[in-house]
Amino acid sequence: MTIILMLVGLVLLVKGADWLVEGASFFARKAGVSEFVIGLTIVGFGTSCPELVVSLTGAFEGNADISVGNVIGSNIFNTLFILGVTSLLFPVSMKKINRNRDIPAYLATCAIVLDMGMGGLLLGKADGEDIISTGEGIIMLLIFAVYLVFCFKTDSAQETDGAASQIKENRSTAVSVAMIAAGLACLIFGGDLLVDNAVLLAKSLGVSDKFIAVTILAGGTSLPELATSIAAALKKQEQLALGNIMGSNIFNALFILGSAAVVTPLSFSSMDAVDAGVLILSAVLLLIWTFTGKKNRIDRWEGGVMLLCFIAYYVYIFNKL
Questions:
Q1: Strand runs (DSSP E) across the chain, as ranges?
Q2: CATH at 222
Q3: Which of 37, 249, 295, 302 has the fewest beta carbons under 10 Å from its own?
């Protein structure tokens, strides 16, 4: 029964991702907003709902390892695995605004979160403890709000991708809204089914909360991003795929961890230098790819490098068991 429920969850994730991409792309054209920003907001935040539920639940239950491990693990999974796989299928296009605004913003977000959670060497935290306090959680939420406003103000209708113009003209706004709502519902419910039953299997093996959070929970709650990004790539809407990952990662790091820290201070004691290093590496690689190969995209060989880094990290985690 556990395996059957996991398969049902996977089917819901795939179908929900397809509906979400279709509905969101319609609004990208109709509203004159770039596909990247649609992916950053509606798609990126919507597919991060499972991470939000898991991390807030962990915070309310006083389990920081679940809250922190889920977010750190999800962001590593999103960037190295999902973008790696997506780039191998279809090279993911980048625009100038991605190179100048969004990728540096994600790198800065990673640095801020790790600095707040692991001693505050850069920001000069007074306590010097490996904890994100309630006050720091509020600061993270404010930074997230500023970034979101900045994205909309700097976005331009000129950035709208040609792929958005291929949306069927006979689809109504109501149908598109229904597709987005149904897609999000399938993603959230399917993610819950998949993760809950995967955790049951993991618990029976007697592994730690951090291991479950960084691997099974992170991978399970990131499946909506995986399904959505691959669906977007297959539809030649690579900007939606990139926006989905960048939006999910920044939402995870600033909004989800910030919200969880407001509920209860989050300890980073279970995170080590390798976890932090791989998270920073995932953002640095994206920045490097803007200067290598074809500067307007993540090439297949670059996606392969990201996948190799992801595999190496998981080998390290499993060797620590």
A1: 92-93, 131-132, 266-267, 297-298
A2: 1.20.1420.30
A3: 295
